Amino acid sequence: MADGLGQVDITLVAAASENNVIGVDGGLPWRLPDDLKHFKRVTLGRPVVMGRKTFDELFREPLKGRTNIVVSRSMEPGTREDGVVVVGSLADGIDAAREDLGRRVGVDPDTPLEISIIGGGEIYRQALPVATRIILTRVHATVDGDTTFPAIPGHLWTLERVERHEADERHEYAFTFEWWVRRAGV
């Protein structure tokens, strides 16, 4: 790409159960406050790309401190009054995120060169082939749901780091933060 940015990481950020469920009836199937803090920490200051259902059902308003890019076939493309950028495809969303990063780097050279893909299921499936990193919260439970995260092909990805958290009075389930990187040359 001729935007002068060079390599930009495309990172899938998700929380999934042992059976890869990420959602049920438009919401999350668990309440894990420390995962929400983790989500904020790993996405803050980065453009976030999400599908329309994720935006409507989970967030309803733009996430602060991040350029919000919504992929939708039913919403009018362009920038809304609330600053949300609406695009018609994932490829357009990634292009819009790169443009946003280009503007940010011009103001702050320490801007992370990373685009966060934050759901839902179909957006994750489309983005997995072009992703360079995955930050996954693996929820140690098998739950019912209607939206899933794609399986991570082990031959293409390396689990780089894990951080386990036990269930407690604030967290119904134990969970592990996992950092995955795409293997070189694949």
Entry summary:
The protein has four helices and eleven strands, in the order ββαβαβββαβαββββ.
Structure description:
The protein has helices spanning 33-43, 52-59, 90-107, 121-127, and strands at 9-17, 21-23, 48-51, 68-71, 78-79, 85-87, 114-117, 133-139, 147-148, 157-165, 175-182. It is of the alpha/beta class. It has a single domain (9-182), classed as Dihydrofolate Reductase, subunit A. The strands form two sheets. Strands 5-6-4-3-7-1-8-11-10 form a nine-stranded mixed β-sheet, sandwiched between helices. The chain is globular.
Comma- or semicolon-separated keywords:
single chain, 186 residues, alpha/beta, Dihydrofolate Reductase, subunit A, 9-stranded mixed β-sheet, two-stranded antiparallel ribbon, 4 helices, 11 strands, globular
Give me the secondary-structure topology.
Blueprint: E1 9-17, E2 21-23, H1 33-43, E3 48-51, H2 52-59, E4 68-71, E5 78-79, E6 85-87, H3 90-107, E7 114-117, H4 121-127, E8 133-139, E9 147-148, E10 157-165, E11 175-182
Parallel strand pairs: 1-7, 1-8, 3-4, 3-7, 4-6
Antiparallel strand pairs: 2-9, 5-6, 8-11, 10-11
CATH-assigned homologous superfamily: Dihydrofolate Reductase, subunit A
- Report the sheet-strand fraction: 25-35%
CATH topology: the name is Dihydrofolate Reductase, subunit A
What number of domains?
A: 1
Number of strands: 11
* Overall outline: globular
Helix content: 10-25%
Q: Low-confidence stretches at least 5 residues in length (pLDDT < 50)?
A: none
- The sequence of SSEs as H and E is EEHEHEEEHEHEEEE
Largest sheet: 9 strands, mixed
> What is the spatial order of strands in the main beta sheet?
5-6-4-3-7-1-8-11-10
Secondary-structure-derived class: alpha/beta
Radius of gyration: 16 Å
Terminal CA distance: 19 Å
- Whole-number mean pLDDT: 94
What is the CATH class? Alpha Beta
Q: Work out the helix count.
A: 4
